[in-house]
Write a structure and sequence with these properties.
532 residues; alpha+beta; Dipeptide-binding Protein, domain 1; Dipeptide-binding Protein, domain 3; five-stranded mixed β-sheet; five-stranded antiparallel β-sheet; 31% helix
């Protein structure tokens, strides 16, 4: 009798556990690559920012699917002193996650966490300034060190006062970007005392809608729902299935092994559109794909050489074969979907004969160079390897012998930013809907050298002066006039060959609801539900 009772009890318990497991909702996102770490302030790739985004919040954020700035950790914002003083009133009772390494928070979010998060990026003496390499490219390249006067605690623990040295038109939009994510000062202190500060950027703790569970490099990232200030997500488990190959991502989606995927192959779009199990979402891309030329390495320091390369490459052929109808030719560093885009810009025409003549006049009759291509698919470039091969063939016709080079994605970005390349493919998806967010990619540091994300290593004093001038102006028409002048300087100087603005397609399974395509290239899952 006792054995029977134990058996029945075990059977009932097993049934209950199975029912509980069956009722849990899991959403799998097929991502394209592995993150460098989980601290947004240290990253510049969409891959890494996507991986950290579920864990963190900012003071303000973009409403899903838009570029509209709305309150987040700060429920109220006061702007005074002509825009130079910004007071953030934090939400009361915002909880932090527990850590997978034994950390348990003892307090809610306060001004201390906000101040700590910005101080790490601005103060060279901050205890975490050099942890994990200490590179904060977004913060520096966007001019934050020169702009910020102070960030201090206000009247109470839930008030933060940010003082600027001068008014800055895009500041709130900039603070909605991932580099401004707020981290836990208490967690940082816990790890420092434990002697493992490097875990801070690999085992993240935040206030976001999902709590980090684990990460297996090049394989999977797991998160679980967190019932925080924004409410509990509709799914219980969020899983990033790291799948670099677009064909493999599509196969997983068809098999329902993932329900959302990034960057489909253009060749697969027609089949996806006809598949009754898939909803093919699309949106005009706030992006640009480009070929950068390292202006610090001869002969790319000569404007005539850069102009000639713009004419040597058949852009129309690239658009046809690589983008397959999912992109439009780019002539400006800004996409046409953003205000201040100058449609009067005249692009370089494909003219290999003239390109060869210009190269000869510049003293270049034969040139050995490298041409770097990205190992991952990006919204602005669906097939960088094929694009590089086509460019290589075109350049050969004008006497430029290009060796194709690539590295693992994180390494690729680091080496490009270090200026190791001569020519390199890259691109950008806007972070905040402001033209400044594209044009800063061509900016200079305070010492007159190219900024970290300026892959072309081109530093033009007139261009940079206008960039800084426009940031101080709130009138959009006046800023647009300056940006038109900057686009003209860019086109003449040709530090990039602008290639394409792509249409962004994102397939989701029919069981998915609430997912919105972000114009900023973000993948967000707070409001997403799935029918199982």
């Amino acid at each position: 009798m006792r054995k029977t009772t134990r058996f029945v009890t075990a059977l009932l318990l097993g049934t209950m556990l199975s029912a509980g497991a069956a009722s849990a909702k899991s959403l799998v996102y097929c991502s394209e690559g592995s993150p460098e770490n989980f601290t947004p302030a240290m990253n510049t790739t969409g891959t890494s920012l996507d991986a950290a985004r579920p864990v963190y919040n900012k003071l303000v954020q973009f409403a899903p699917g838009t570029t509209n700035v709305v309150p987040a950790l700060a429920e109220k914002i006061d702007v005074a002193d002509g825009g130079k003083t910004i007071t953030f009133h934090l939400r009361k009772g915002v909880k932090f996650h527990s850590g997978v390494n034994g950390f348990t928070p003892t307090r809610d979010l306060t001004a201390e966490d906000v101040i700590w998060s910005f101080a790490r990026q601005s103060d060279k003496n901050h205890p975490y300034a050099k942890v994990s390499g200490g590179a904060f490219d977004y913060f520096n390249d966007m001019g934050m060190p020169d702009l910020l006067d102070s960030i201090k605690k206000g009247a109470d623990d839930l008030t933060v006062v940010m003082t600027l040295k001068e008014p800055n038109a895009p500041i709130l939009a900039n603070l909605a970007m991932d580099f401004a994510s707020i981290q836990s000062a208490e967690y940082a202190d816990f790890l420092m005392k434990k002697g493992t500060p490097e875990q801070f950027d690999q085992m993240p703790v935040g206030t976001g809608s999902f709590q980090f569970v684990n990460y297996q490099k090049d394989s999977v990232i797991r998160y679980k729902a967190f019932d925080g200030w924004a409410g509990k997500p509709k799914v219980d488990d969020l899983i990033y299935a790291i799948t670099p190959d677009a064909t493999a991502r599509y196969a997983k989606m068809k098999a329902n092994e993932c329900q959302v995927m990034v960057a489909p192959n253009p060749a697969d779009l027609e089949a996806m559109g006809k598949d009754g199990d898939i909803k093919l979402l699309q949106q005009a891309g706030l992006n640009v794909g480009y070929l950068s030329m390292n202006a610090m390495k001869p002969p790319f320091d000569k404007v005539e050489v850069r102009q000639a390369i713009n004419m040597a490459i058949d852009k129309a052929a690239i658009l046809k074969e690589v983008y397959q109808g999912a992109g439009q030719p780019a002539k400006n560093p800004l996409p046409p979907t953003i205000w201040s885009y100058d449609d009067t810009t005249v692009d370089y025409t494909y003219d290999p004969v003239k390109a060869k003549e210009m190269l000869a006049k510049a003293g270049v009759t034969s040139l050995d160079t490298d041409l770097w291509w990205m190992p991952v698919q990006r919204p602005y470039n669906p097939n960088a390897k094929r694009m590089a091969e086509m460019m290589q063939s075109d350049l050969e016709k004008v006497g430029i012998h290009a060796k194709l080079v690539s590295y693992e994605w994180g390494e690729y970005r680091k080496r490009l930013q270090a200026g190791e390349h001569q020519m390199g493919l890259l691109g950008w998806t806007g972070d905040n809907g402001d033209p400044d967010n594209f044009l800063f990619l061509l900016s200079c540091k305070a010492d007159g050298t190219p900024a970290g994300q300026n892959i072309a290593k081109w530093c033009n004093k007139d261009f940079d002066a206008k960039l800084l001038e426009a940031r101080k102006i709130t009138d959009q028409a006046a800023r647009s006039k300056i940006y038109a002048e900057m686009q003209a300087i860019f086109k003449k100087e040709a530090p990039w060959m602008t290639i394409a603005h792509s249409t962004v397609f994102e397939p989701v399974r029919k069981e998915v609801s609430g997912y919105k395509v972000s114009p900023l290239g973000a993948h967000e899952f707070q409001d997403v539900d799935i029918t199982q």
